[in-house]
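note to self: dont lose this again. the chain is below, predicted strucutre after it. 116 aa total, dont forget to put it in the shared folder this time
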Amino acid sequence: MQRTETLERTGEQVTRKGEEFLNKATDKARETAETVGDKIAGASEAIQGRLRETGKEVGDVVNAVSDKVRSSARYLEESNVQDVVEDITVLIKRYPIHAILIGAGIGFLLARGRTR
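---
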């Protein structure tokens, strides 16, 4: 009988220890999941904030470029060919290195376009 009682007590202790272990493991898993979830949520918020900032910056650049294109189109519509040539001549004299680089770039693009 003693042996049966000892085995029953041992079985009960093992069951209790197993339940305690399972409860601790469940709690740790829940804590880890919450921590990971919080970190992922924080990263997601940071990414969304950065995208909003970047989107605003890109929007500002697009608006600035659009304004410049519109003003250039208006200038070309309102000016005659002689005025445009004179303005280009002034720019070339004011910025000769830039003019050479732009001319070389345009020449490269034209030459490349012809070989295709």
